[in-house]
Amino acid sequence: MTAVVAEHDDHHDHHDHGPEKGVLRWIFTTNHKDIGTLYLVFGLIMFFVGGAMALVIRSELFEPGLQFVDPNFFNSMTTMHALVMVFGAVMPAFVGLANWMIPMMIGAPDMALPRMNNMSFWMLVAGVLLLASTLFMEGGAPSGGWTFYPPLVFQNGKSFPFAIFSVHLLGISSIMGAINVIATIFNMRAPGMTLMKMPLFVWTWLITAFLLIAIMPVFAGAVTMLLTDKFFDTSFFDAAGGGDPVLYQHIFWFFGHPEVYVMILPTFGVASTIIPVFARKPLFGYASMVYATGAIAFLSFIVWAHHMFTVGMPVAGELYFMYATMLIAIPTGVKVFNWTATMWKGSMTFETPMLFSIAFVVLFTMGGFTGLMMSVAPVDFQYHDTYFIVAHFHYTLVPASIFILMAAGYFWLPKWTGNMYNEKIGRLHFWLSAVSVNILFFPQHFLGLAGMPRRIPDYAIQFADWNMVSSIGAFIYGFSQLLFVYIVIDTIRGGTGEKVSDEVWEDASKHSLEWTVPSPAPYHTFSTPPARIPTEHF
Amino acid sequence: MKKTKQLLACLVLMALGLGTAHADYTLNLMKGVTQLSNELYDLHMLILWICVFIGIAVFGTMFYSIYHHRKSKGHKAEQFHENTTVEIIWTIIPTLILVGMAIPATKAVIDLDKVQDSEMSIKVTGKQWYWEYEYLDSGVHFESHLDEASEKTHRVSTMDPHNVPNYLLNVDKPLVVPVGKKIRFLFTAADVIHSWWVPDLGWKKDANPGFVNEAWTYVDKPGTYRGQCTELCGRDHGFMPVVVIAMEQDQYDAWVKATLDKQNQKPDLSDQTRNTLMAKGESVYLKNCVACHQIDGNGISGWFPALRGSEKVTGNMDQLIGFIQAGTSKMPAFKKLPDDELAELITYIRNAPALGNNVGDEIQPNKITPKWDDDE
Amino acid sequence: MSEDIGQKNTKLVRKLALVAIAMFGFGYALVPLYDVLCDLTGLNGKVEGQAVQETAYQVDKSREVTVEFLTSLNESTPMLFRSEVKSMKVHPGEYYTVNFYAKNTTNMPMIAQAIPSITPGLAAEFFKKTQCFCFTEQTFAANEEKTMPVRFVVEPTLPERYKTVTLAYTFFDNTNISKK
């Protein structure tokens, strides 16, 4: 059986003796660990590209008046910042983690479809490069917001069709990645690894993958309609031809709401993986975590119009979408309570991954609270499209998804590299990030409530103070992330010099399979299925 | 270790405290000046406090645990991993809280929708980048642009916004409404989607091209209330504020009369001095042209052509008049400009040092041909 | 077993790819679904684009509904466009005719389409038109002015709570699109 599993893919043969040398290794690799690394590195680079755009935005907003950029370029920056962060940084980073960790967590030798895996990565690169190329086109990059609302989106210059094609590429890449994840989880689990024994990270990714397959094609359809409206005289969204611009918003948010959960569900998964290890306790309520994730995913399909309360809906619609949205608070609450209960009466230590995870639970919950506030349709008539929502979704993305990606980096770097990162610098990175992210985003609540609309390059004098505070926070936050780059490079080069054990973290192998293989993880793992399945979470 | 924990605890408490303790203008939602906006404010505060209490309970438990249940204190981990009773409780309690929130929220949704039985209607049209108002009963209609001081200041980097009263929140012609009257607003847009928001009235509403949305208000207190466009509508989205002035009925009636008189007046076509033409021309330019052609007349490469040194601007005067009146596929037809404003504008764009043009001529209002025959 | 996994993977990939393609189709299916939803709920005040047969209703003389008329021009549509009256009081069940005037202010022929919208949206289904210039594209000769009657009825079944109904038209210049 051993030999058979090792040969499950014939094109894999030439890899059996370890990676090829040189650049070609990275271009043609079908190894899940190599592709995982590619995704993670790409995500990190894009995080800094998107971050640079955010700093352009925050520089312009440092003081009232227009100092640095033209309003149109400002709009391009907000649009591109969102697209790059969503499609270039957060999603690829989680796909990278999935590639690295899912096969190791379920005791599989590789992803189910290694060649497709390679293809989906390079399509992602192509898509993002195409998107980035619009920055240099006549009329500039897309500037109508990442939501591409018509008719405004039709006023974009030459970049419009390229942005659409880029979205197509990114969509196909995501769909292929998702198919791969599902096939791996369904078909490649080690004997004895039943679905309800899988680590929660695998579970959340499974559900995320289904979300992706369901929504990316809808988004592709929506932008294709935009394309034909502009160039082939269809009128899906053009009132003059009997269409309706509001229809686009419905289709977009049918995609868009699950899309934001694509970024948060794997976040939940990683947090549920890290917290038990450092609390030295099994995860509290494993089954309810799985069901809560499923419930959140299901609800995400039926709440989309809460992004459009002010668009002019009949009362029945407002009420329905309000009630449905409020329901999300229940499974989300269950998750937060479970994490708290996991910590309760544990024996906690506070290494960097745990620090980031605790900050995630706290700050994500604050984002959840503002989400609950905005689910209430009538008050959303005040909050909508102000800095209040900017604060809300940044709280659910930056100190949530980004913090957890950082936590995941610290958590698994020793496994990936065999070296220990510098804990002191790690903690410095954490504290700088945790403090500055609040300086950056907390004042935006005040700005929104006081009446500052989002997506404006200049503002009234009464908003000046908090904007300045926010911008200062942005610069501290942005530059402290360079510490992470330093730590990653330093750890790859040997880190503290201390060789880590297979387990890395105390008793980690009780929680998940990746801690049973050597550190650094060999190029091929689980060519023979694991003998024992960890059941700590039972 | 202890320090780090204290720091984190401080931070969270500070953050929570800031969000709730100071309910003044720059930190919290405004109460507004209508019953509806007050209802929404109360609802906002209710949910905010619910969130704060849940937050204190959850974070309190978490930080208690972080403080006491740590390895460095020798705490031994217990191995429990489920408790059905607890899990049922923490599912049911939030559900009950949500039901409690949903009741006043439902009432507010219905109140927001009570547009019927209003006493007057105002049509609001969003355009790139100004608002147009039309009073259906009296026939008063006008455009409401960003005021000249803000318009100039945000375009000239050497000008300080701090010197402009109500920077970016002021308009040339505000919307005037009577207090104590139920007013119905009808929203539409002429190009892209806009959204009309005055926080003091308690709501915003999208203006969609080709469709009409409605909303209502009943202002209790006379005053000036400011807001902005809140749906990204292109380049100058940040520069199309809303100003509503609410006044007593008798003052309002006087305002309607005065505005109507002015509206029905034929434009004054008498000759003006060159300086007057140029000065007034700048105002017309700032209101109608600057958004695309820019304050220095350079336009925006790839989007809008430059006026600086343009053949079309400095060449034949009659062709220029025709061009401005007829528009192009990209530029709207400016037939709406009365002859006096057109003459001022043309004199300005042909001669303004700010635009780098210096033809050295002028045109008087009564010399404008071809005239547009408005038979309305 | 390797054969097995290979086959299982292929099968699963096929199924999932089909789901993805189906979801692409679903995106397009949302377009007619949305129209159905609009009809059902009056979302966005979308109005039927076709004339209805004139049927006699029981006229309710005891009730008066105010009908307001709004006229708008999209972007730089070079027209004049107004209604004969800004508003009128009508009895449900009775037919009324109101004239709209539109003028092409250019020296070129023009094709324009008027898009109707009714507010409140939920009242749209009770507002029937037997004649309207919005049912088809309108062709204007250079500088032509047209008088365009709209004949409508407010059905007596209109719920009591609606006392004002607004009928809005926006003219869109379709000259460039229709010529193609």
UniProtKB/TrEMBL annotation, chain A:
SUPFAM superfamilies: Cytochrome c oxidase subunit I-like. One of its GO terms (cellular component) is respiratory chain complex IV. The keyword Ion transport does not apply. Its EC number is 7.1.1.9. PROSITE patterns: COX1, COX1_CUB. Signal peptide: none annotated. It is a multi-pass membrane protein. GO terms for molecular function: cytochrome-c oxidase activity; heme binding; metal ion binding. It is found in: Cell membrane; Membrane. The chain crosses the membrane at residues 35-57, 77-100, 121-140, 160-188, 200-227, 260-279, 286-307, 319-341, 353-373, 393-413, 425-446, 466-489. GO terms for biological process: electron transport coupled proton transport; oxidative phosphorylation; respiratory electron transport chain. Pfam families: COX1. Residues 20-537 form the Cytochrome oxidase subunit I profile domain. Keywords: Cell membrane, Copper, Electron transport, Heme, Iron, Membrane, Metal-binding, Respiratory chain, Translocase, Transmembrane, Transmembrane helix, Transport. It is an enzyme of class 7 (translocase). Pathway: Energy metabolism; oxidative phosphorylation. Cytochrome c oxidase is the component of the respiratory chain that catalyzes the reduction of oxygen to water. Subunits 1-3 form the functional core of the enzyme complex. CO I is the catalytic subunit of the enzyme. Electrons originating in cytochrome c are transferred via the copper A center of subunit 2 and heme A of subunit 1 to the bimetallic center formed by heme A3 and copper B. Belongs to the heme-copper respiratory oxidase family. This is Cytochrome c oxidase subunit 1. It comes from Methylomonas methanica.
TrEMBL record, chain B:
Residues 276-353 form the Cytochrome c domain. Residues 117-258 form the Cytochrome oxidase subunit II copper A binding domain. Binds a copper A center. One of its GO terms (biological process) is ATP synthesis coupled electron transport. Keywords: Copper, Electron transport, Heme, Iron, Membrane, Metal-binding, Respiratory chain, Signal, Translocase, Transmembrane, Transmembrane helix, Transport. Residues 1-23 form the signal peptide. SUPFAM superfamilies: Cupredoxins (SSF49503), Cytochrome c (SSF46626), Cytochrome c oxidase subunit II-like, transmembrane region (SSF81464). Its cofactor is Cu cation. It is found in: Cell membrane; Membrane. Pfam families: COX2, COX2_TM, Cytochrome_CBB3. It catalyses: 4 Fe(II)-[cytochrome c] + O2 + 8 H(+)(in) = 4 Fe(III)-[cytochrome c] + 2 H2O + 4 H(+)(out). Its main location: membrane. The chain crosses the membrane at residues 47-67, 88-110. GO terms for molecular function: copper ion binding; cytochrome-c oxidase activity; heme binding; oxidoreductase activity. The keyword Heme applies. Its EC number is 7.1.1.9. It is an enzyme of class 7 (translocase). Coiled coil: none annotated. Residues 21-116 form the Cytochrome oxidase subunit II transmembrane region profile domain. GO terms for cellular component: plasma membrane. It is a multi-pass membrane protein. Subunits I and II form the functional core of the enzyme complex. Electrons originating in cytochrome c are transferred via heme a and Cu(A) to the binuclear center formed by heme a3 and Cu(B). Belongs to the cytochrome c oxidase subunit 2 family. This is Cytochrome c oxidase subunit 2. It comes from Methylomonas methanica.
Automatic annotation (TrEMBL), chain C:
It is a single-pass type II membrane protein. One of its GO terms (cellular component) is plasma membrane. Keywords: Copper, Membrane, Signal-anchor, Transmembrane, Transmembrane helix. Its main location: membrane. It is found in: Cell inner membrane. GO terms for molecular function: copper ion binding. InterPro entries: CtaG/Cox11_dom_sf, Cyt_c_oxidase_assmbl_CtaG. The chain crosses the membrane at residues 12-31. Exerts its effect at some terminal stage of cytochrome c oxidase synthesis, probably by being involved in the insertion of the copper B into subunit I. Belongs to the COX11/CtaG family. This is Cytochrome c oxidase assembly protein CtaG. It comes from Methylomonas methanica.
